[in-house]
Amino acid sequence: MKQRVGIARALASMPDVLLMDEPFSSLDELTAHNLRGDVLKMVKSRSTSVNSIIMVTHNVEEAVELSDRIIVLSDKPSTVLSIKRVGLRRPRDKRTEAFQDLTEEIFNQLQSTAVNPAAAVRKRYHSQPAASFARR
């Protein structure tokens, strides 16, 4: 309910662009699914002033389901790794091969560029004297 109220509040100012930062991440799967559908209906119906939505998400399936274009960013410091056009027809079906292929392609790209936290810690601390490590 909070998410719907937040979206309604954002729409009250009649924006051209709606910025959404992880809008569905705190919701259970069913509620998130329904709210994603509501957002798609709102944009499709043109019942609002919103011409574009920019959404930040870590959920690759969500990005493929909702987006026309996906900008894939690297780990910090973030740089643009790629821009993917989503050429799938709406409504998008997660069970189709094309949907799964695009999801896997993006996921693999993210996975191949992600920093391995354990390796980063090993590299950082093994290059320093043990006494320095013990004091931290």
Summarize the structure.
Helices cover 49% and strands 15% of the residues.
Q: Going across the major beta sheet, what is the strand order?
A: 1-2
CATH class call? Alpha Beta
Which residues sit in consecutive blocks of at least 5 with pLDDT less than 50?
120-136
- What is the count of helical runs? 6
- Report the count of strand segments: 4
CATH architecture name: 3-Layer(aba) Sandwich
Q: How would you characterize the largest beta sheet?
A: 2 strands, parallel
Radius of gyration: 19 Å
CATH topology: Rossmann fold
Shape: globular
N- and C-termini, Cα separation? 44 Å
The structural domain count equals 1
CATH homology superfamily name? P-loop containing nucleotide triphosphate hydrolases
Secondary structure topology:
Elements: H1 2-11, E1 17-21, H2 29-45, E2 52-56, H3 60-66, E3 69-73, E4 80-85, H4 97-113, H5 117-126, H6 130-135
Parallel strand pairs: 1-2
Antiparallel strand pairs: 3-4
Structure description:
The chain is an alpha+beta fold and 136 residues long. The chain has a single domain, classed as P-loop containing nucleotide triphosphate hydrolases (Rossmann fold). It has six helices and four strands, in the order H-E-H-E-H-E-E-H-H-H. A two-stranded parallel sheet has the order 1-2. A two-stranded antiparallel sheet has the order 3-4. Helix 2 links the parallel strand 1 and strand 2.
Features:
two-stranded antiparallel ribbon, two-stranded parallel ribbon, alpha+beta, 49% helix, Rossmann fold, 136 residues, 6 helices
